[in-house]
Amino acid sequence: MERESQETVDEVRMSFFDHLEELRQRLIRAVIAILIGFGLCIGFKERLYNILADPILQLLPKDSSLVFTSLPDPFFIHLKVAFIVGLFLAFPFVLYQMWLFVKPGLLEHERKLALPVIIIATLLFYSGACFAYFVVFPAAFSFFLGYETTVLKPMISIKEYVSLVALLMLAFGAVFETPVLIVFLGLLGVVDSAFLKKGRRYFVVISFIIAAILTPTPDVINQTLMAVPMLIFYELGIQILVIFEKRRRKKEAEEDREPEKNEDEETQTKD
Fold first, then answer.
1. Distances (CA, A) of 43 to 51, 58, 76, 90
2. Is the pLDDT at 28 greater than 70, yes or no?
3. Disulfide: which of 37, 118, 142, 182 matches 86 by Cβ 3.0-4.6 Å?
């Protein structure tokens, strides 16, 4: 009896370490993909920087420009921009590695959703970044530059600016992944639609707390522009999860009926 119990513990332990090893391999492949994306973007680093700097340059006075306060700043900023864009390019592959890691915990028909889930999640991530670039940046930058006076002129460091826009684009990309995350957790059995519906009012508060944490500037504009889409996607995620739950219950009911049907056929054959 003691020997059997030890064997069971060993099996669980091996399974746990197998999962850790697989996670390590997935992370290594994801990092390699990001580095490849970074390498591809190095040759276009100046163009990419110009695109990233355009929202603020459009709003600055004609006699103003971005500045750097340390000699190495332009060099490292261009590398940082290349890395950020490389991360965006590698995102579908990183997402695929995450899917492969959780795939064993899903049902057979749920595993077939890999391609559409990755495509939708990628489009949502890119949509979040575009929303930040085309909607949030003009609104937020116009608000802050509105404090310019004759004795108060903007002198914006490229180091701080690139860090700000990179963080905002990644944050909004992550926020737009809310419905995918909800469905993901639902399929793994961590949450269900009933639990999420009950937690609606709490999520309103949580969304603004998350927005306050993710937005580097403590202003109402950025926080509201992040919290509102999060709430919309929260509701969308619940509705999608309800559909998946109905399909899963239907599939399980069909599987439960199959053994009964087989037993009836065997009984009729014997008779």
1. 15, 25, 14, 17
2. yes
3. 37
| Least confident among 20-29, 180-189, 246-255 | 246-255
Q: Name, in order, each residue with C-beta under 8 angstroms of 211's C-beta and a sequence gap of 6 or more.
A: 175, 222, 223, 224, 226, 227, 230
DSSP-derived secondary structure letter, 208? H
For 30, the token pair is: 């994801």
pLDDT at 226: 86
User: What percent of the chain is modeled with pLDDT above 70?
Assistant: 84
**Long-range residue pairs from 185-191, CB within 8 A, at least 24 positions apart, any chain:** 186/241, 186/244, 186/245, 187/106, 187/110, 187/244, 188/102, 188/105, 188/106
DSSP, collapsed to helix, strand or coil, labels residue 42 as helix
Supply φ then ψ for residue 2, to 5 degrees.
Answer: -65, -35
Half-sphere exposure of 163 (CA within 13 A, CB side): 10
- Which residues 6+ apart lie within 8 Å of 115 measured at CB? none
Residue 149: strand pairing partners: 152
